[in-house]
Design a protein that fits this description.
387 residues; alpha/beta; Isopropylmalate Dehydrogenase; 10-stranded mixed beta sheet; 14 helices; globular
Amino acid sequence: MNEVQINAALEKFKSLLIEQDERNQKIKATKEFKDFKNLDKIVIGVCGGDGIGPIITKESANVLKYILKDEVESGRIEFKYIDGLTIENRAKVMKAIPDDVMEELKACDVILKGPTTTPQAGDGLPNIESANVAMRKALDLFANVRPVKIPEENIDWTFFRENTEGAYAVGSKGVDVDGELAFDFVVTTTEGTERIAKLAYEYARNNKKERVSIITKANIIKTTDGKFLNLCKEVAKDYPDIITDEWYIDITTAKLVDKKRRTDFKVFVLPNLYGDIITDEAAEFQGGVGTAGSANIGKQYAMFEAIHGSAPRMVKEGRGKYADPCSMLRASVLLLSHIGKQEEADKLEKALDICMITEKKMTITGRDTGCTCEEFGQYVMDTLKTL
């Protein structure tokens, strides 16, 4: 390593410091949460993404339009379809989200988003940032909320994953100093941590959840994880009615499969990377990532998505029409709840439980041995008519 390489790395780090300080100042200046009850009109963006994304997103939007029929017809709720978030288009303009697509997204109140492909080493695509990460940062969607419920096993978990910081904040902006030594960076801010902690504790209090578990690896990652842990514990002091405990991420993953201990968990609050990993593990208890939805919440915008990938192989093999929409439909339940349509959310959740768990008149296999995505969507709408 020579002096030129060292100085280049230092300059890169300096630019990242300035960038993250600017982001932190914007967080501090953010307005309060949008009040959907007082909006004359709610615009729901429908953004298909890649692979099977457009297929499952379209079907989920159809179900949403069915359950919101009256307000769609009155004009209070509008569905806005947004194209252009395909990997081909993103690679063409060398941006995680093309400028024109971002403007369309910002014209919406909430977004129903399909899976998108993220380039990785060796796939021949340019090194552009994940569209999900870019959207979360641009719209300041700081909370990723994922519920996992299995009543028969007494599992009722809700994960609050910090969504804009941690290891993902500058994930595509690491430094390869000299071909032998490389660095990536982890970002933790006071404002960013406090707001995710407050959201988790408010949720726990409002939903009568008696415990919040703070998940870190603060014994090893002492600066950033240590800051996250200490700030969450400070927020916890304002909620003396709620039990607070702290766990390391490694033992938490083990205890989720411990039948004697896992039912003690209720609400989790955790940094970005750990939340990404452990929520996929948790979804397996519910039937896999294809059965769980995800909410990305900010003060002015919110985005709802499936938690699985874009499955390009299914489309390449001609099996796209057999894609499973259940994760996206579960996300639609979260969308309805977020815009103040709790009765409709409860109704859709009940219909999904019937279609996916108790009745199961149709089975999705991802192949012609099961039903198509469109057929399953119709099954859900037919079930809604009976409720």
